[in-house]
Amino acid sequence: QVQLVESGGGLVQAGGSLRLSCAASGRTFSRSSMGWFRQAPGKEREFVASISWRSSITDYGESVKGRFAINRDNAKNTVYLQMNSLKPEDTAVYYCAAGSIGRTPANYAYWGQGTQVTVSS
User: Fold this and answer.
1) What's the confidence (pLDDT) of residue 87?
2) pLDDT tens, 40-95?
3) CA 100, chain centre distance (Å)
4) CA-wise closest residue to 74 among 104, 32, 115, 117
5) Sign of torsion, CA 71 12 86 114?
6) Residues sharing a CB contact under 8 Å with residue 56, sequence separation 6 or more, in sequence order
7) Which of 19, 20, 96, 117 allows an S-S link to 81, with CB 3.0 to 4.6 Å?
8) What's the per-residue H, E or C state across the chain?
């Protein structure tokens, strides 16, 4: 099993940056692909980024490509999401997930509780 705890969310002005962290516990973290998803009120959960367990494969949603970057440190059992050039439409609860690499929530068996990101205009 993998337990996930996100941190780093908050309120930021448009154009600013935030870095989200997801700390994992459990023996299988280093063998798990990791993903970030987000969900705004009244909307479906949206794929943001994913990274394979060796960091050899990364993938990004179209709306964040070129602005966000995902990376992981297996020695620290942590995955990060660097978010730059933030826009008001990036406002959402951001979730970390562990499982098989892919763009759909069904690929991921384990989820964190989420962290709120709010971007003001």
Assistant:
1) 98
2) 999 999 999 999 999 889 999 999 999 999 999 999 999 999 999 999 999 999 99
3) 14
4) 32
5) positive
6) none
7) 20
8) CCEEEEECCEEEECCCCEEEEEEEECCCHHHCEEEEEEECCCCCCEEEEEECCCCCCEEECCCCCCCEEEEEECCCCEEEEEECCCCHHHCEEEEEEEECCCCCHHHEEEECCCEEEEEEC
